[in-house]
Amino acid sequence: VQAVLKENPIGGKVNLAIVKNLGSDLSDTLFTLDIFPNDNIVISNTSAVTLQAGDYIRVDILQVGSTTQGSDLTVSFKYRSIF
Questions:
Q1: Predicted local confidence at residue 78, as pLDDT
Q2: Burial of 20 by CB count in 10 Å (0-12 exposed, 13-18 middle, 19+ buried)?
Q3: Closest by Cα among 40, 31, 30 to 65
Q4: What 3 state SS string does the chain have?
Q5: Partner of 45 at 20 to 30 A CA spacing, among 1, 32, 70, 80?
């Protein structure tokens, strides 16, 4: 997973959670990403996850910068199909 902001945050980090399905179970949080102040990109360094047919992905924005929030978020996923 890669997250990019066109305008970087200032005064605090942007914190994102990549969650599958409803996210009601702790194991449903697949990735947690932080884009730190004066930066605009983060790439996950955790191992790959496996999804099942019918699963869906949600991006939760948990925190934004305090002086400048950051803007124009793009989240990209690299995937490999086993079919």
A1: 86
A2: middle
A3: 40
A4: CEEEEEECCECCCEEEEEEECCCCCHHHEEEEEEECCCCCEEECCCCCCCCCCCCCEEEEEEECCCCECCEEEEEECCCCCCC
A5: 70
